[in-house]
Every structure is written in C-alpha cells, then in structure tokens.
Amino acid sequence: MKKLSTKDLTILGLLSAITILFGLTPLGYIPFGVIRVTTLHIPTIIGAIVCGPLIGGLVGLVFGLFSLFTNLTAPSSILYFMFINPLVSVLPRILIGVITGFAFRGLNAKFKEKFFVPFIVGGLGAIVNTVFVLGMGYILYAPKIAKAFNSASAGKVLLGVAASNLPLEILATSVIVGFIVPPLKKSLIK
After folding, report:
1. Chain centroid to CA 152: how far?
2. pLDDT value for 36
3. How far apart, in whole angstroms, are the C-alpha atoms of residue 26 and residue 120?
4. If both were cysteines, with which of 41, 42, 47, 90 could 59 make a disulfide (CB 3.0 to 4.6 Å apart)?
C-alpha cells in the first residue's frame, strides 16, 4: 500500500474542499438551457491525473459521500431516490478517480506526455461518471425510474438524460481539465 505524502494529503484536502464548494454553490451545476452541466467530478479527475488513482479515488469518495448526504438531507432531483443508495452515489464517483488515474498513466506512457492526454482523460471522466451513475441507477431502480417519469421504459428515460447532458459535460470537463492540469503539474514539480 502506498504511503501518502504530505503533498498527496494537501492535494486531497484541497480538491475535496473544492468538490464540496462546487456542491454548495452554483459552480457544481451550471445551467445551460434546460439542462444542468455538472462540474463536481472535475476535482476527482484532476486528483487522479496529478497524484494517481488512489488520490483520485479518495477525492471521488468525498464527491460520492457529499452526493449521498445532499440527497438524504435536501433532495432536489426527481431521481433523488437513486442517490440515497451508495452503489449509485458513492461507488461510481470512486471509480471516476481510479479509472481516470490509470487511464492517464497508460495514455501518458504511450503518448510521451503529449498536451492532449489531459483533455482525453477529462472527457473520459465525464463518461465514467454518467455511465456508471445511470447504469447503476438502471440496474437497481428501473421500475421506479419509469414510474417517476410516467414512462414505459427507464432505459429511454436514462438515455435521454445522458444524451442531453453528456456531450456538454464531456466538452466542459475536457477543456477545464486539459487547461488546468499542465500548469498545475508544472507548479507541483517545483
């Protein structure tokens, strides 16, 4: 087991605080027409890229626990019932950090630290968040989702949610992560 350095713990604390700040302010869900683009997963992805899958997974754990707490105490979505289950609210958020951390390592080794790798990993993080959250929601709550939307098909409902949110989340996450990570990594090397 890797021993966490002071730098790792500092970054973990900072990115966890940013995650909570995003969740408590409009920065976490940016309105774009009729949809809301989430940015809460961005600190998790940045932690995974800068410090690796362990720190990414731990920041994702904070994201997931915050999501669980929020939906238990102040639900604001028609699908809140999904997020009071840690398999939907916590596990996928941990996986964002773990998967993007390993993806960054692999892509970075293959492409020799090319500028585009953080952009790709940022987009991948948005995809992991959406696919695993909605996938677990479907597996565990398909009948309840269909009933909540008065639909015959939970799959169509969730695909509609993904189709409306995911393209903008991929774009926003790719750009933000792609532009933040290189100078951040450079400043941490000093």
Report:
1. 29
2. 74
3. 25
4. 47
Is 38 strand, coil or helix? Answer: strand
Q: Residue 98 and residue 115: Cα distance in Å, rounded?
A: 21
Residue with tokens 């996928």, as numbered in its chain? 92
For the record, the structure tokens of 70 come out as 């929020």
pLDDT digits (tens, 9 = 90+) for 121-162: 999 999 999 999 999 999 999 999 999 999 999 999 999 989
Residue matched to tokens 């997974």: 57
Q: Would you tell me how many other CB atoms lie within 10 Å of the CB of residue 116?
A: 11
CA-derived radius of gyration, the chain: 17
Sign of CA dihedral 12, 16, 18, 22: positive
Q: How many helices (H) and strands (E) does the chain have?
A: 8, 2
What is the helix (H) or strand (E) element at residue 37, kind and residue range?
strand 35-38
Q: Which of 67, 58, 22 is nearest to 40 (CA)?
A: 22
Read off the tokens for 85: 């289950």
Name the region of 38 (left: φ>0; alpha: ψ -120 to 50; beta: rest): beta
In DSSP terms, 38 is beta-bridged to 29
Number of neighbours of residue 122 by Cβ within 10 angstroms: 29
> Tens digit of pLDDT for each residue in 93-123?
999 999 999 999 999 999 988 999 999 999 9
